[in-house]
Design brief:
- There is one protein chain.
- The protein is an all-alpha fold and 125 residues long.
- It is built from 5 helices and no strands.
- The radius of gyration is 17 Å and the shape is globular.
- The chain starts with a helix and ends with a helix.
- The relative contact order is 0.12.
Length: 125
Amino acid sequence: MMRLLFVGLGGFVGTVCRFWIADLVSKRDGETFPLGTLVVNAIGCFLAGALFYLLNDRVLTSPTTTAVIFVGLLGGFTTFSAYGLQTFTLLKDGEMFLALVNVLASNIVCVVLVWLGYSLAKVIA
C-alpha cells in the first residue's frame, strides 16, 4: 500500500512539473505549435535515459524506488518517456524490427485512435 502511495505522490509531482513547464513555454512562445509538450517530452526522455542508466546499470535500486521514479514521477511528467525508453531498450537489445514496429505502431495507431475517439464523440454528443 505504501508503494502505491509513493507512486501516486511521484505522479503528482511529475504532473505539476509538466503543467508548470508546458505552461511556461506556451506563455513565452505561444501555442501555434505544441512546443511546451515537445519540451516536456524531450526532458522526460532525457531523464528516462539518464536515470535508467544510473539506477539500473550503475546503482541497483529497489523495485519501489524504480516504480516511484519511472511510473510515478516520469509517468506523471510524460508517458512519452516510457515510449522512448522502451524503444531504446529494444534497440539496445538488438531488436531493430520490434523497435521500428513500436515507433510506427505507436505513432500511427495512436494518432488514428485520437481521430477515431474524436469522431465517435462528435457523432454521439
